[in-house]
Write a structure and sequence with these properties.
Blueprint lengths: L2 E2 L2 E2 L2 H30 L6 H19 L3 H22 L9 H23 L15 E3 L4 E3 H23 L1 H11 L1 H6 L4 H23 L11 H14 L4 H21 L7 H12 L10
Antiparallel strand pairs: 1-2, 3-4
C-alpha cells in the first residue's frame, strides 16, 4: 500500500471528507459571528450558547411536540432568533457606542447563564437525536462509506453560507445593512429604520448558530457543553479570516476543517491545536486576518 510519511495514502481522502464536515460547522458558526461583529461591532461570546440552544430546540420540538428534523430546521432558528431579539433590545443596544470589551463581557456572562440553566435542567450527560430516516445510510465512495447525513450537512451549510454572502454583498438589502452600521444617522435620514435593521441582523446571526446546532444534533451529543467546547475554535476561525469578513469566515472555516482533518492523519497529537498555531502565524504576518482590511 502506498504511503506518505508512513501514512497510508487511502486514509487521506477519507480524512479530508470528514474534515470538510467539521469545516462546514466552522463556516456556518463563524459566518454568524462575522455578521454580528461586522454589522454591530459586538463580539458575541454567547454564540456557542445559541448553537447549543438550537440543538436543544430541535430535541425538545421532537420530544415534546413531535416536530421532526426538517420542521426543526425552520422553527429552531426562528425560536432562538427570537431570544436573540429580546437580548438585543434589552441589553446589547445599550453597548453599541461603547468599547468592544463591554459587549464581550456581557455576552460572556450571558453564555455562562444560558449554559448554567441548561446544565441545571438537563445535566451534562446529553441527549441523543436520531438522524432522519430519509438521510440514513451511506454513499460508497470507493475509499470510504460516507454517511448521507454528512453529505447533507456539507451541502446545506455551503448553500446557506453562499446565499448569505450574496445577500449581504450583492443585494440592496445588504447595502442597507452595511449603510445602517457604517453611518446610522445618514441612513436613518433616508428613511431606513436603522434599529430594526440592527435587530434583524443580530437575530439572523443568532439564527445561523441555531441552524448549525440543529444540523449538529444527529452527529454530536445534544449537551449543554457542546457550545463551550466549540466556540473557542470558531473564534480562532473568525480571527484568521478577518474580524467582520463574511467571505473570510466561510473560506477559512472550510479550509481549517480540511487542515484539521489532515492533521489527524499526520500528527494526531497536534490536531486539537493546529487551528491556534495557524492563528498565531496569521496574526504575526497579517494582524487584520487573511481577508480583513488593514487600517
Amino acid at each position: 500500500m502506498t504511503e506518505i510519511f508512513g501514512v497510508p495514502l487511502l486514509a487521506l481522502p477519507s480524512q479530508l471528507v470528514l474534515g470538510l464536515v467539521n469545516g462546514s460547522f466552522y463556516a456556518l458558526l463563524s459566518l454568524g459571528l462575522a455578521i454580528i461583529f461586522g454589522m454591530l461591532n459586538i463580539i458575541n461570546f454567547a454564540h456557542g450558547a445559541f448553537y447549543m440552544m438550537g440543538a436543544f430546540a430541535s430535541w425538545m420540538l421532537l420530544t415534546y411536540f413531535g416536530v421532526g428534523y426538517f420542521g426543526a430546521l425552520l422553527l429552531a432558528p426562528l425560536l432562538v432568533g427570537t431570544v436573540g431579539i429580546v437580548i438585543e433590545r434589552l441589553l446589547l443596544q445599550r453597548l453599541y457606542r461603547l468599547d468592544h470589551l463591554y459587549g464581550l463581557l456581557l455576552t460572556f456572562g450571558l453564555a455562562l447563564i444560558i449554559e448554567g440553566l441548561f446544565r441545571d435542567q438537563f445535566g451534562v450527560s446529553g441527549e441523543t437525536y436520531e438522524v432522519p430516516e430519509i438521510l440514513t445510510g451511506a454513499i460508497d465512495l470507493g475509499f470510504m462509506a460516507l454517511p448521507k447525513y454528512r453529505v447533507w450537512v456539507i451541502g446545506v451549510s455551503t448553500l446557506v453560507c453562499l446565499a448569505t454572502w450574496l445577500t449581504i454583498e450583492k443585494t440592496r438589502l445588504g447595502s442597507y445593512l452595511r449603510a445602517a452600521t457604517e453611518n446610522p444617522q445618514l441612513t436613518q435620514a433616508f428613511g431606513v429604520n436603522v434599529p430594526l435593521m440592527i435587530m434583524v441582523t443580530y437575530a439572523f446571526g443568532v439564527g445561523l448558530a441555531a441552524l448549525a446546532g440543529v444540523m449538529a444534533a444527529p452527529i454530536f451529543q445534544v449537551s449543554p457543553l457542546m457550545g463551550s467546547n466549540l466556540i473557542i475554535v470558531v473564534f480562532a476561525v473568525v480571527v484568521i479570516g478577518g474580524m467582520g469578513s463574511i467571505l473570510g469566515a466561510i473560506v477559512t472555516g472550510l479550509m481549517l476543517g480540511l487542515i484539521e482533518g489532515l492533521a489527524k492523519v499526520f500528527y494526531p497529537e497536534g490536531s486539537a491545536t493546529v487551528v491556534f498555531v495557524i492563528m498565531a502565524i496569521v496574526l504575526i504576518l497579517r494582524p487584520a486576518g487573511l481577508f480583513g482590511r488593514e487600517k
